[in-house]
Amino acid sequence: MSHSPSKIRNIAIIAHIDHGKTTLLDALLKQSNIFRENEAVPDRAMDSYDQERERGITIFAKHTSLPYKDYMINVIDTPGHSDFSGEVERVLGMVSSVLLIIDAQDGPMPQTRFVLSRALKMGLCPIVVINKIDRPHADPDRALNATFDLFVELGAHDKQLDFSYCYASALSGYAMIHLTDPKENMNPLFDLVVSAVPPPADDPNDPFLLQAMTVDYDEYVGRGATGRILGGKAVKGQRVMRITATGEQTQHTITRIQGFLGLKKIEVTEAIAGDIVSVSGVPDVMLGDTLCDPAHPQQLPPIRIDEPTLSINIMINSGPLAGRDGKNVTFNKIKERLLKEKRSNLSLRIEETLGQTEAMTVYGRGELQLAVLLEAMRREGLEFTISKPQVIIKEIDGEKCEPLERVFIETPEEFSGSVIEELSKRKAEMQSLETNEHKITSMEFLIPTRGIMGYRNDFLTMTRGLGILTSLFENFTPWKGSIPKRANGVLIASTDGRATTYAIGNIQKRGTLFTSPGDEVYEGMVVGENNRDNDLVVNIMRPKHLTNVRASGSDENILVTPARKPTLEEALVYIEDDELIEITPNFIRLRKKQLKEGNRKRED
After folding, report:
1. Phi first, then psi: what are they for 515, rounded to 5°?
2. 3-state secondary structure 181-239
3. Which tens digit of pLDDT belongs to each residue from 311-349?
4. How far, in Å, CA of 205 to CA of 188, rounded?
5. Residue partners of 271: CB distance under 8 A and separation at least 6
6. Is 513 helix (H, G, I), strand (E, B) or coil?
């Protein structure tokens, strides 16, 4: 890497979900001249993980470098969802400033508040980009004023309040300092980054120093520690000392150094202070570990990794249809895959389940983070069963405590009353409420994680899809007592076989079905949701009895409502303690752990 520290700019991009940061990065990549003229450049190029493309969100923080004139701009794309907030906090330690992307129509949103407060506390001076100014209802001046108010509210100092800003349309590929400027290209934003972002203050003449801010894993060279070189230079074959959070010291040899250019990782022989690189050769490196010159040992303050709030147990698939769909069904294969995840994804905690053979426990920050792992496993041909997610209980000063979420809600005023009523049943405490001139009510609540689990679908139904709900982990709070569980019981298959149109036509008036005609079912499988609060055992395989009376065309009169097939995230928050989710590459089935006939009603 040939750039001196004075020609390097290190920035991260932060934004609320869907405010356009990945699209903005696409525009910057395309206009930085790193692609050949005939090279195909995909849309949302930085979202390289298949689930990121399908879900439309960024899951993992990613690095790239953009050459501009004689400068090298290192950019880190960060996740916008609160379940992956740990990724955001870590990468901020590598950069000198952040690009804060604000939607010109929506203005600052809850996740904006979270990541911005972290950046301000670290002393960074953000550059604000008012994006999507070409939208029909865009109001860039209002968005800019609301952003300034947010800076004030978060306690920004004078220098941070005097932030640089520009306007942009990432989709159309232009940026401008003033709204009256010509709409040409992204150069005004590039120039703003060069002028407003300070170069790294790291000295190439100091002893080597780097802190592992993210960790990845490679089958050939093991773990790689990614971070900014805070002093000196890294050379392939160089001896370094690793100092852990507990002060333990070991010496290792750097086997590979990788930098970033566009969408590629490039191997280099040396890198100097100010560069963001991935260093391999330290097999057990962990987040926050210090890598330094053995002759000048120096430990940097360890990084605090956010504690998980939810856990699930992952077990082998013991259902009657086990092994029909997946190619990896044994516990050894499941354990091997989870231990591989443990090596590279340090934001998850993975360990064997206490007191239970052939089960692994995964601890994470939220349902989405857990669902991303489970979805990846099923796509790799694994078949397994999982239990209902449980909140993690801690004992603080002798008191039982549970995780608490801060929930931000925006909804049309007409639905606010029913939202407040439902959340109060779930032990939520209102912190603020205001309604703007467009009759949109903004509310803020503190609610136990148990109370928000499974509520999102009900919220969307209640607000007719017009509400916005965002939650952020707040802290651990004393146990809030019992919270109402799922209001409806389930419909349970009574025997093994295939569901028939005739049976479904008769059963569907009793509830919402998860099963379509022809689907294979078995005794104890949950085939739908009951309209009432009790569980109901039903015969979903019942055929139509033949008679000697001709009734031409009567079968065609059975109208079957399309089944509601639950997604992985929906299933995670839907099941109760006595139910399990069976996950295979092509199917998601719900089932009872065991049928307790005394507690079940049977279909007449």
Report:
1. -120, 140
2. CCCCCCHHHHHHHHHHCCCCCCECCCCCEEECCEEEEECCCEEEEEEEEEECEEECCCE
3. 999 999 888 888 888 888 888 999 988 988 887 777 788
4. 34
5. 1, 229, 233, 234, 257, 259, 277
6. strand
